[in-house]
Amino acid sequence: MSTAEVTDLYMRTMQYSWDAYPYPSKTIEDLDMDKIERFANRINEKGRLRISGTPVEIISKMNLVKDGNPTNGAMLLFAKTPLMYDIHAGRLKTSDVILDDRIIRNTLYEAVEETMKYIMSHLKVSYKISSETVVQTTQRSEIFEYPLEALRELVLNSIIHRQYDNVGDIKIKIFDNRITIFNPGKLYGDLTIEDLKTDYYQSSARNKLVVEAFFLTGDIEKYGTGFHRVRNAISKYPSMKFKYREIQNGFLTELSYEETSTDNTVDNTVDKTNEEKILDAIRVNPGITQQKLVEITGLTRRGVEWNMQKLKVESVIRRVGGKKHGHWEILSD
């Protein structure tokens, strides 16, 4: 039995939760009061609990303060300076060829949104236009490469249930036809892989206060329905598969799919890749800077540079003039 497994067993036996312990050498002054107020507003908007008071009173009611000092959970959720529990996300062509990567370090609610934004920036988007739509309206519907509700559920699961006394990072790898998410910490309590295959498993919370917080804001349910919702979401994607397993000292989930052809006689889909986002931006503003492309596409500067270089090598674009006063020209238009 590993040290992490021994720690988990001890805490379950004593009915402790790691996030309920005081965080060493930190005080209330290390918490961001604005984040706590936004948290309280979200709770009240959801309506599962009515909560009021000063920021310190609010987190005290949530048991996120112990002996006048913030707990591990409070620091994870509301620290002014986010703790070093990183999410390492990247876009890969193969296991050895990394096209783009990013280290996300933030408090938990913000980390969820930042992670989803990064993942979405690397997804292909299709615009579905049916024959009926063409006749009746100019509207079109967006279809993401993966169901966003499934991805969000898996991101939430990894952030909320990770083992925070394990120094490893959450690792998200985005390949051409699959996404994997690894989080430190195996399944908690008596939960098994076989249980997760059913729609009626009973979940166990490693981080009880964090789970409570995300439940009250309406981001999760407490009833072990997360994987059920993932299965429901991918049911609309016929070729998509959902796999999960325990590996080493953690848990790995994977969404993957097979490429399928599109019937162009009735429904048409047009993929919106990162390259196309860049080309669209250049059409609007030929003098656009790389920093502006970073903001538009959600890629890192390295990711923008890689895509721009690829477009130049393929003779899709060229640079006219110098860096300061030049502009981009699209050769294919």
From TrEMBL:
It holds the Pfam family HATPase_c_4. InterPro entries: RecG_C_sf, WH-like_DNA-bd_sf, WH_DNA-bd_sf. This is Uncharacterized protein.
